[in-house]
Amino acid sequence: MNKADQTPIETEIKMSATRILTAACALAVLAAPLAAQNPEQRIQHAMDRVQAQGMPAELLQDKLAEGLAKNVPMDRIAAVIETRALHMAQAQVALQRAQQGPPSAADLAVGADAIGAGVSEAVLAEIASEAGPERRTVALAALAYLAGPDGGLPEAARVDHALEMVMEALDRGGPGLGDLQQIAQRAREQQGIGGPPAGVPAPGKPGGVGRPGRPGGGPPNSL
Q1: Where are the domains of the chain?
Q2: Separation between Cα atoms, residue 190 and residue 47, nearest integer Å
Q3: pLDDT tens, residue by residue, 148-171
Q4: Nearest-angstrom CA–CA distance, 84 and 78
Q5: Which sign does the torsion angle of CA 59, 60, 66, 68 carry?
Q6: Three-state secondary structure call for residue 173
Q7: 168 Cα distance to chain centroid
Q8: Are 124 and 115 in contact (CB under 8 A)?
Q9: Least C-beta-crowded within 10 Å: which of 48, 97, 143, 174?
Q10: pLDDT higher at 66 or 11
Q11: Rounded-to-integer distance, Cα 215 and Cα 223, Å
Q12: Residues near 160 by Cβ (< 8 Å), separated by ≥ 6?
């Protein structure tokens, strides 16, 4: 049948089929680069991205090492690292707003934990500003723990309760800092891991990046 013999309906059907096929081919071409990326490439891309944003890729390398040690599938590790990179970027914005400068690696680590637990950038900035440089890391670690599912707070308004508890501890001054250290230490003990929480120096020890803690939220935050 030539075009002259086709009815208008048949012509429209063929044209619609051609448009659908063209659109499907275009989508396939656009999706090809993403589909072609294997987990290792996704991980490297996430590390390159955080470095380009001025953040230490070591914080993602720690996640990679944890996943490999636990024999977690590489696609799962890639998803967790991509999420972690996003949370780090959000924490970086909030912490820069609070302290008018680049945050430390320790603050980025626990800040990302807090974001993963559902803490907003606004709340993170509020705690970071209130705590000051001397107490910021331990305050953020306590906030991340309390806002997470292992913090023991009721699920409803969990972040609000966590914010209130940390602010009260900070308002008490010296004893309040001790309370925060105990809260953060309790998080490590409940996870079956000794020593201080992520990024928090043990008493009497110089500051620095501690062993990475688990984010408070669920997948794809945790391994």
Answers
A1: 39-223
A2: 30
A3: 888 878 888 889 988 988 998 888
A4: 10
A5: negative
A6: coil
A7: 26
A8: yes
A9: 174
A10: 66
A11: 10
A12: none
